[in-house]
Design a protein that fits this description.
Keywords: TPR repeat. This protein is mainly α. Helices cover 61% and strands 1% of the residues. The chain has helices at 2-16, 26-29, 37-42, 49-61, 65-78, 83-95, 99-112, 117-129, 133-149, 174-186, 190-203, 208-220, 224-237, 242-254, 258-265, 271-284, 288-301, 307-325, and strands at 347-348, 365-366. The radius of gyration is 24 Å and the shape is globular.
């Protein structure tokens, strides 16, 4: 009891010192959503912003985003001009899905430094994730123009006629060019997207993210052999990069290489989940027999009843009934009741059958909504 009281008193003391910079101040507390700040406070804390940045980087590398977040905020408190610390706060919140907090942190930077390329890069990436595409295009386009000024070039406002004239180096913001490629893909401008992704690979020649993006762009364009090559390159750069494994598994499933697809999905999920995902790809392509086999396999392999696969199996049966009742009318999946699955992974696939834009997720594979937007 004495130890608990001592810890509580120490935490209260630290909280009382917030205005002196001895812990995270009130101006930064609203950007912390972790659950262990008291523990970090009673431990030996960083005395300098440099030390806090090192502790944050080590925690982030170890996967402890709570402590990384706390230490980056600590660095910002010790030196309010350490804007790179706040950019990291925004990045961590974005990765954790805390979009409002991510946006607030990044806007705090941009209020003071409107030309901060890292903050613009992260904000544009966040806006894409939030499907605010026109805003993302404006943010990333502004960042691109700032980057090109370093080379003495002037990029006018509006859409570039030829992105192939752009110049980059290892100081260029990778996510800006990758994000502009994503926006081009969303407009089905695949050749333009490829130029941006190749620029991203010039910035970081071993970027799994850029290689994966290039692969997905080739996939969307129907260039499956090129997509496969790019995914393999991404995984060669980083064998732990989950988005590439998911996209590679989806591609293999669509190519009919089901065992290879299962193996790819299993790099990031259980065998039961992998079977469900392969089955789902078969389902959206209208291959009901194969879909049923994989859904039943997922149910059989799961230690407990695998609800998502079970619901997907019911969906197969519903489609069959519709086909039987409406011979020659195809499969109108948009009329189906669809189950809500666990949180979807970073994989999207184009549908081979008509689907409503609001169709809920039914696997770790998710369906994109149609995009109609003009982007500068």
């Amino acid at each position: 009891m004495h130890r608990i009281a001592l810890l509580a008193a120490l935490a209260a003391t630290l909280a009382g010192c917030q205005t002196t910079g001895e812990s995270i101040g009130k101006s930064r507390n609203d950007l912390y959503d972790g659950g262990r700040s008291v523990l970090y406070q009673v431990q030996k804390g960083a005395d300098t912003p440099e030390q806090a940045m090192r502790m944050a980087a080590a925690a982030y590398s170890a996967g402890d985003t709570d402590q990384a977040l706390y230490q980056y905020l600590r660095a910002s408190e010790l030196d309010p001009k350490r804007y790179d610390a706040l950019v990291w706060v925004g990045r961590i919140h974005r990765e954790r899905g805390n979009n409002p907090l991510a946006e607030r942190a990044l806007n705090d930077v941009l209020k003071v430094e409107p030309g901060n390329l890292e903050a613009l890069s992260e904000l544009g990436t966040l806006q894409i994730a939030m499907r605010r595409y026109p805003e993302a295009a404006k943010t990333l386009g502004g960042a691109l123009r700032l980057d090109q000024q370093r080379f003495g070039g002037v990029v006018p406002a509006g859409e570039l006629t030829d992105p192939g004239v752009l110049m980059v180096d290892d100081k260029s913001p990778l996510r800006v060019y990758n994000g502009l490629g994503v926006l081009a893909d969303l407009r089905n401008e695949f050749d333009r997207a490829h130029v941006y992704y190749r620029l991203a690979l010039q910035i970081s020649p071993r970027s799994a993210m850029a290689a994966n993006s290039l692969g997905y762009s080739h996939y969307l364009a129907g260039e499956w052999p090129a997509a496969r090559q790019a995914y393999q390159q991404a995984l060669g750069f980083d064998a732990s990069y989950k988005p590439a494994w998911r996209n590679y598994g989806m591609l293999l499933a669509r190519m009919g290489n089901y065992e290879e697809a299962l193996s790819a999905f299993e790099q990031v999920e259980t065998r039961a989940e992998a079977s469900n995902d392969v089955g789902y790809v078969c389902l959206i392509e209208g291959n009901l027999e194969q879909a049923e086999l994989f859904f039943r396999s997922a149910i059989d392999q799961s230690p407990a009843h695998y609800e998502v696969a079970s619901q997907n199996l019911k969906r197969v049966e519903q489609i069959r009934r519709i086909r039987n009742n409406d011979a020659g009318g195809g499969s109108d999946v948009s009329r189906m009741s669809t189950p809500v699955a666990p949180a979807a992974g970073p994989l999207t696939i184009p549908s081979a059958v008509p689907l409503a834009a609001s169709t809920p997720m039914v696997s770790t594979v998710s369906l994109p909504s149609p995009l109609q937007t003009g982007t500068p």
